[in-house]
Amino acid sequence: MTSESPTQHVKTDAKTDAKTDAKTDAAEAGTPPRPQILRPHAEELFAEELSALRREDERPRPPGWVLSPWATKLYLLGGTLRSGLAIRPKYIGSARLIEIAIATLATDRALLLYGVPGTAKSWVSEHLAAAISGDSKLLVQGTAGTDESAMRYGWNYARLLAEGPSAEALVPSPMMRALEGGKLARIEELTRVPSEVQDTLITLLSEKILPVPELGIEIQGRKGFNVIATANNRDRGVNELSSALLRRFNTVVLPTPATLEEELAIVEQRVGELGRSLELPAEKPALAEIRRVVTIFRELRGGKTLDGKAKVKSPSATLSPAEAISVVTNGLAMAAYYGDGEVKAADLAASLTGAIVKDPVQDRLVWLEYLQTVVKEREDWKDLYRACRDVLG
User: Fold this and answer.
1) pLDDT class for 273, splitting at 50, 70, 90?
2) Considering the entire predicted model, what is its pTM?
3) pLDDT, tens digit (0-9, with 9 covering 90-100), for 50-87
4) Contact criterion met (CB below 8 Å) for 312 and 372
5) What b/e readout covers 175-209, taking b as 16+ CB neighbours within 10 angstroms?
6) Measured distance CA(17)–CA(22) in Å, rounded
7) Which of 132, 112, 214 is nearest to 181 (CA)?
8) What b-and-e string marks burial along 3-27, b requiring 16 or more CB atoms within 10 Å of the CB?
9) Domain-by-domain residue ranges, the chain?
10) What digits encode the pLDDT tens for the residues 346-370?
């Protein structure tokens, strides 16, 4: 039995009070509280949408797919079903890129989602796996320490020593389970994986088999098996992919949002979802505050103001939508626990500065110059200028 740690009392609205009372009543009645998952998998979080799509999906499906390519696209990009259920968009951007990604997975080529950090590569990968296989959990997280067992299989060494090589002693990897089950396997940060481990993928992707020489067998892939990998172009120098491996992938580059309004929609949607998931007792951030953060990131990223009248220096940070989401969500938490529940410039200033200033010398100078020449000159941004200068000291 676990007990909750004490939490600081904060000002909440009637809905939050009612939710707390309901939990208290359940506890007093002897009903065990429902476990709260911090981050449910996509197929769990959007189970209702996926179930509704399966019921209405009458289009042709590739072998082993849970949804058709048409329904998979609708799940990713959003829309309305005949039943009237609204499917929330998971990706806001080019529909053509999503079509290419989905079509690739219906062929014998694997999919490589490529781009700068924070362009929703992992997010798209997870939702593609949830829609196509109904399971996004077959994941290999690429790091410098990833070894071949993550791509092939491992062993239960206690049983291996006691019994020798056997099927019972074999520990299947996510890749092996995907191969056997005809599902999608996901590989995150492929360029961070050592080159010799990357090479183990070539046989898997070419022959769709996984030899197990210790047992004298091979695992043959079932229809529906494929691989989605992600890589960011700032890591090209870590372990660049060989040409032999690249030929097994169809590469789709996910760009940063093309317009301010597109980026605003992404940040607003994700902040709202995160705020609800974390149960932050604060008001939804005003669109004006989100717009200021997104505008700053786009201008610093692009090297000029949005009106094109002034050039600005760019910091070393990526300043993608992912960082903007983090800044606004942190501001939401600051407003909830140390403010009046309404996000203001002072709530955003520290996390905004932290996202931009990665190099304490060069980036600090870039940020100071931008504050002085751009932010200070905007009449309705004076509060943000003062709050950021207070943080910098």
Assistant:
1) confident
2) 0.85
3) 999 999 999 999 999 999 999 999 999 999 999 999 99
4) no
5) bbbbbebbbbbbbbbbbbbbeebbebbeebbeebe
6) 9
7) 132
8) eeeeeeeeebeeeeeeeeeeeeeee
9) 42-253, 260-392
10) 999 999 999 999 999 999 999 999 9
Pick 31 or 296 by higher pLDDT.
296
Using DSSP, state whether 56 is helix, strand or coil. helix
Question: Which of 209, 211, 145 is closest to 179 using CA atoms?
Answer: 209
- Residues whose CB falls within 8 Å of the CB of residue 331, separated by 6 or more in sequence, listed in order: 285, 289, 343, 347, 348, 351
- Residue of 267, 332, 269, 253 whose CA lies nearest to 297: 267
Q: Tell me the Cα Rg of the chain.
A: 24
Q: Where does 42-253 sit in CATH, by number?
A: 3.40.50.300
Entry field: residues in the chain: 393
Q: In this predicted structure, what is the pLDDT of residue 329?
A: 94
What CA–CA distance (Å, rounded) separates 92 from 147? Answer: 35
Q: How does DSSP classify residue 311?
A: B
pLDDT for 236: 62
- Which residue matches tokens 């676990």? 2
By the 10 Å C-beta count (0-12 exposed, 13-18 middle, 19+ buried), 263 is classed as: buried
C-alpha 190/C-alpha 105 separation (Å) is 17
